[in-house]
Amino acid sequence: MSCCDLAAAGQLGKTGIMASDCEPALNQAEGRNPTLERYLGALREAKNDSEQFAALLLVTKAVKAGDIDAKTRRRIFDAVGFTFPNRLLTTKEAPDGCPDHVLRALGVALLACFCSDPELAAHTQVLNKIPILSTFLTARGDPDDAARRSMIDDTYQCLTAVAGTPRGPRHLIAGGTVSALCQAYLGHGYGFDQALALLVGLLAAAETQCWKEAEPDLLAVLRGLSEDFQKAEDASKFELCQLLPLFLPPTTVPSECLRDLQAGLARILGSKLSSWQRNPALKLAARLAHACGSDWIPAGSSGSKFLALLVNLACVEVRLALEESGTEVKEDVVTACYALMELGIQECTRCEQSLLKEPQKVQLVSIMKEAIGAVIHYLLQVATLAISPTTPGSTWPGDALRLLLPGWCHLTVEDGPREILIKEGAPSLLCKYFLQQWELTSPGHDTSVLPDSVEIGLQTCCHIFLNLVVTAPGLIKRDACFTSLMNTLMTSLPALVQQQGRLLLAANVATLGLLMARLLSTSPALQGTPASRGFFAAAILFLSQSHVARATPGSDQAVLALSPDYEGIWADLQELWFLGMQAFTGCVPLLPWLAPAALRSRWPQELLQLLGSVSPNSVKPEMVAAYQGVLVELARANRLCREAMRLQAGEETASHYRMAALEQCLSEP
């Protein structure tokens, strides 16, 4: 028995409860455990801190002695609450002979018990412990101390439970957990493998936020993993293949990491492997190709041989997947192989500083032709699956067209490929595909079972349509399929902007619809019909809710800031938002009913009110230009709009922001 146990037993001796009573496991699924009842009774009757601590010690020991059911856990929480764990985590006055970290270990053990309940794991009293829990992961101490090891295990249990709640990852990132996990892993102390597992989960849930908060620490982990990968001689190298893509940064990958990763991949892919060993390596190579092109492959003979091997393996994998009947097709692997084939095409067409010599290019072109032929043959075979309803959650052969969308997105930007796609009827097919996929997300369908790929595919379709709107406006006006598409966008956006977690898709739909409305402004469907009014009201909602006034400490004037819903995805959203503002501005003079509708929504008044409530220095020039464009067109289009803006101090606001065009417009009768 430890010194702390002896101290506790001495205190409990006065109440008739002995420390030896803590041995039975608290694992009864039904009824009440007599031992627990005695412990909780002692806790309720404790007259001082020492007696409370002693009783709590035994309750905690009972909790740790075995599994407990949800009802028992709740009874413990009702008796103990968060008060005792809070005191244990922060107190510096331990009973004689009991180290401070033992008290903290008790507090964490109770929190770990409570966190088994998802509702309690999301409680503010748990969330506000994240910073102190994170410090426990890197605290120094005797690595062989049993209490310290137990506390570390319980800490990981708490943090993992929080990570499993809806907003848990965001709280963990804000609480410094990512940096603490990185340091715990790099220290290779007790529990470092748990640190890596939790890091993987956080990166998968909120990659951008993780890198924003802890980039130096995550890069240090990447360096360590890359070095381990390069040196690994056992099966761990295949496990690292699966982990490493998650740790590649959104910015530049350090050169020393690229060297280690390429060397490790060369050793793996140069060996005879089974598919479960080879596929993670191909996916890692594809991620590197996406992030760095061919810059991660060294020049010279070794680099050219490696690239040729990589592309060759990718082509073989594609042919096996598409030509062999009965072969299990893994979508992520095939997609990775397409990325590697694209890398091969880029190097084969590069005239200067190519990694490949001419004979290698000729050989690879021949191999890639065969793989591309397999793709075309497959698509011809399944061409009638391409626009048929897809069963939610089905594998990719029922949705072959989706794999072509990223390529089409690139091709529609270039004049030659775009003309070929238009000539072959690709836009019409894409419209039908979009409408079919959109049907899967409509009311009456259970969207919770849909794979993420459906929504990603819809966003990519929108990008392709945006390219066509900008580069081939005549096509939008003359092809009837775009009228059907416009009708779907108009009827769908009002519900879409209200749905949580679908803001990026709503941005794509709103922006595409606004740009198409400018081209189809003479269509009867856009002449103030209920559908058109609903669409523009929803578009205004999307455009108007992006920014808010936010108070700043020590200042009397607020600043313009992103709304919480927009802040986390603004990097992906901002281009669509600015394009949407520009498109809305262009629609105002073309649709006479739009300015009065915007006035009834109070957008111009609220926009001027927002600008008047924040510091002009906090509003970037591009924001000022976007806001002025909308306000000027609304003011020019409608007398009542001008009067409403004047009543909202529009001329004064225009002067403060140097909006000369708006100021002049509002000065006119």
From TrEMBL:
InterPro entries in the cross-refs: Neurochondrin (IPR008709)
Pfam family, one: Neurochondrin
Domain of life assignment: Eukaryota
GO annotation terms (biological process): neuron projection development; regulation of neuronal synaptic plasticity
Record GO cellular component, one term: dendrite
Family in the record: Belongs to the neurochondrin family.
Protein name: Neurochondrin
Organism: Molossus molossus (Pallas' mastiff bat)
